[in-house]
Amino acid sequence: MPELPEVETVVRQLRPKISGQRIKKVIIIDRKLGSASRYSTITNKKIRTVARRGKYIIIRLNDDVRLIIHLRMTGQLLWQGNSAQADKYTRVILRLSPRAYLLLNDLRRFATFTITKTPLNLGIEPLTAAFNSKHLGNILAGSKRAIKDFLLDQKKIAGIGNIYASEILFAGRIHPRRISSSLKPAEMLKLTAETKRILKLAIKHQGTTISDFADTNKKKGNFQRLIKVYDKEGQPCPCCRTEIRKIKQQGRSTYFCPHCQH
DNA sequence: CCGCCAGCCTGAAGGC
DNA sequence: TGCCTTCAGGCTGGCG
Asked: Average model confidence (pLDDT) for chain A?
């Protein structure tokens, strides 16, 4: 579920709340995430920084220990000040000091919660200055896959998921089935600009909630109001009134306007 | 190397 | 009401 803007929303909320606090206890409720003893190395360690890389949340502790969380489709990281309000989807509870709780809730149990020192193998951060049309041209060169599939490849660009891929291509007026290496310089310029604009706008609106996404206070995002094509099959294109179409690429839905996107 | 697809889970929604 | 199928903001491993 959560893509870059949703994860960024969670990280920005979490940072001031948990930085400097100590992890007093790790309660693993879902056995799939390992035994409590596996997390003995993080108990009593202090939280130094909270950061995002792609769709990963990286909580850096003392002694360069890193707690890495990925919310996958339905994960939520909830912050609770007074007591831990767990429900049937609570998979992990971190008890912090001073008194607070951090819960990992996840309906589908795809979320990951790991301690590791191995670096993440991810592509460029799309909101950095280094992500420009020249860089995009370099990584697109020679790629025969559809541009939609390319945008979803986390080893090329980190953080774009299925909703924003459709939205970015619509804004860029590029057909999702275009062969990546066929993009012209002007299109690459447009694509990088629209990627940044849409991701920033979505962060400003606390992300998109279609069904499950919630921030650390269990509040929904607001960007779904600004979505133009995702999940809008059959509805009129906001630009030309042509019906939005839905196609499958790599088993995943893509939405686009057949008139506006080429 | 690259590209594709099933599998991992649970629940909601739609068809009959 | 129920049963069955499909679908869902993601990623991985194994295959060709």
From this structure: 96
